[in-house]
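Exercise: predict the fold of this chain.
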Amino acid sequence: MSSNTSSHPKGRGAGSNVVSRFVELKREAVDDGWEPAERTPLRTELFTDTSRTIISSNNSPDVPFTYSINPYKGCEHGCCYCFARPTHAYLDLSPGLDFESKIFAKPDAAGLLTKELGKHSYVPKVIALGANTDAYQPLERQLGITREIIQVLKAHQHPVSIITKSALVERDIDLLAPMAETGLVKVFISVTTLDRALGRRLEPRAAAPQRRLETVRRLRQAGIPVGVLMAPIIPVLNDNEIEQLLGQCAAAGAESASYVILRLPHEIKDLFVQWLQEHYPLKAEHVISRIRDLRGGQAYRSEFGERMRGSGQYADLIAKRFALACKKHGLNRRTLELDCSKFRVPPRSGDQMGLF
């Protein structure tokens, strides 16, 4: 059962602008007895990120990539559970509504990437595109930064792994399909739930569940390898969907599947509890209890090897169910290794011709 009232702006995931953990001054809303004023729609604001580099390096044993590119900081999809929300605190902004309404774009991303790939010291490894925030979030439709990045990667014959929950990735099939023919790309579609009502509350500005399945289908029809991520699995809310969700993803053409257990680091814990109490008040206590079962009695544990999958009997049960469902539906039968050997720096105007 869910609540019929809403205390936060329509179409947004967070219910408040929780103060960053780095800010000493705390603010608290109070009821002063006046009738609440009509809420002004929360509009998205666009800012320019002036970073001088575009490729980030990662050495975590929990993630299967070393390099990543994130064209945007913040994400308008507004997923209430997003593990990237706390990064907005480093910008002196709230991981709450600020994260999904104050977006920092990197308009120079393609140029920066071209420069970094052209360095003699560069060693090609698969780049994960959109590993932190979605590279195909709504603003990408107008800005096209992600498409420019893919064009650079294609020109360099550089392998890329794309993670998204947006149907906008279909726009770039003309670039991705030729790359797939030479083992340079794989796309992972995040499918959290098949329940449209739950999906709307969890991920208010992301593609509907059935639309994501259609994206899987269209990518596969174009010859592009596709995997799915059930991320996150949230106890009580969507863990009952594992078998059905994987079955429908496989039927749509997915070849592989993985999952991540809900993570609640830093400010996300309070934001998610607030979201639960608003939308699923009768389930909130049960959900939090199950989360603690997965985290050794805590709301979150950040140790490598545990933060993604949890631990304990409940975590083991989820892992077994997921593995059995994958086996039943023919998922994960083969591992696709993207090809780094084709990488080359294309000639640029003004380059000196080589001797022959």
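Check your answer against the key: The chain has eleven helices and ten strands.
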